[in-house]
Amino acid sequence: MKQFKEKYIIGVDHGYGNIKTANHCFKIGITAYDTEPLFTKDMLIYNGKYYLIGEGHKEFLRDKVQDNDYYCLTLVAIAMELSDANIYEANVIIAAGLPLAWTSGQKEAFAKYLSQNEDVTFTFRDVDYNIHISDVKIFPQGYSAILPYTPRMKGLSVMADIGNGTMNMMFLENGRPKAESKMYTEKFGVYQCTLAVRAAFSKLTQREIDDFIIDTVLREGTADISKSDLQIITATAQEYVEGIFRRLREHGYDAQTMRLYICGGGGCLVKHFYTGSLERVSFIDDICAAAKGYEALAEIKLKADESRAK
Q1: Domain boundaries 2-140+290-309, corresponding CATH code
Q2: Which of 136, 226, 270, 284 could form a disulfide with 111 if both were Cys (CB 3.0 to 4.6 A apart)?
Q3: CB 262 within 8 A of CB 168
Q4: What's the pLDDT score for residue 59?
Q5: Alpha helices in 1-86, H assignment, sequence order
Q6: How far apart are CA 255 and CA 281, in angstroms?
Q7: Mean pLDDT across the stretch 230-238?
Q8: Residue 42: helix, strand or coil by DSSP?
Q9: pLDDT tens, 73-118?
Q10: Is 10 within 8 Å of 80 (Cβ atoms)?
Q11: What is this structure's pTM?
Q12: 139: closest CA among 94, 182, 184?
């Protein structure tokens, strides 16, 4: 969270698996109830309904404004950041992002969606919040995460933001993004690997495997399971990672002449399961990097707007 005059800039990275802010990360699962549920640890009360956060799994939605879930999750993200500073009434500027190739087409609708209520009152974790949404800034996803690295980039580089739902690719020259025609978004996120593991495991063992085990192996490279089960997951993950690099090459990536910067949760899969050389590959491991970048870009834009107005 950044303070700009009397307003607070709060970056929110609306992933398909997790919501990230500059200091927090939580799963996007959300379940609504008309009456107060039994367990209320991470409960949002908004507009007469009760929402348990982190419960269930939200399906992939190409357009995030199709329902009100991401709006409610944004309120939770704002509450988490404000709570760290013991602030419960605030004038907030939301800084968010969209997949690279979808930004121009969805930017206006997403900004309108996030600012649907200028003033909003809600309760999260038994604390009341009164928030004024004064503005919403939308930026290209992925680029914000590598923003601190761009001044040091020389020659040709490629950014690959591998999230849970999508894979975003951007080509850069000396740290500056090339034309919009060199930005790509594909539905090839980590969840596609999870689905492939489930299918392969069922086919080869006639058993089901818990997603917790899959997530552990994809994140850490191993788990406390049998060698044969681990081999199935490993082989499937290696195929998925090969698919990442195949898509990069199809869009013009050349490992000999370009440096690759990988951000997003999929970076751990490349680390653990890529069989090629990683000599010219850098990883942005901070899962909150994009949200921090959104805040930095919003601050830059606000200062520039203020300067032009003088």
Answers
A1: 3.30.420.40
A2: 136
A3: no
A4: 61
A5: 69-84
A6: 9
A7: 98
A8: coil
A9: 999 999 999 999 999 999 999 999 998 877 777 889 999 999 999 9
A10: no
A11: 0.90
A12: 94
How far apart are the C-alpha atoms of 283 and 145, rounded to whole Å? 11
Distance of CA 292 to the CA centre of its chain: 12
How many other CB atoms are found less than 10 A from the CB of residue 90?
Answer: 21
Name the CATH architecture for the domain at 149-279: 2-Layer Sandwich (3.30)
Q: What residues form DSSP beta bridges with 281?
A: 260
d(CA 106, CA 114): 12
In order of 101, 237, 239, 289, the CA distances from 209 in angstroms are: 34, 15, 19, 31
Q: Coil, strand, or helix at residue 120?
A: strand
What is the rounded distance in angstroms from the CA atom of residue 278 to the CA atom of residue 41?
42
The residue ranges of every structural domain in the chain are 2-140+290-309, 149-279
Write the CA distances from 98 to 13, 87, 238, 307, integer angstroms. 9, 28, 28, 27
Q: Are 2-140+290-309 and 149-279 in the same CATH fold?
A: yes
Query: And the tokens for 77?
Result: 């993200």
Q: What DSSP string runs through 242-274?
A: HHHHHHHHHTT--TTTEEEEEESTTHHHHHHH-
Write the pLDDT tens digit of every residue in 172-223: 999 999 877 889 999 999 999 999 999 999 999 999 999 999 999 999 999 9
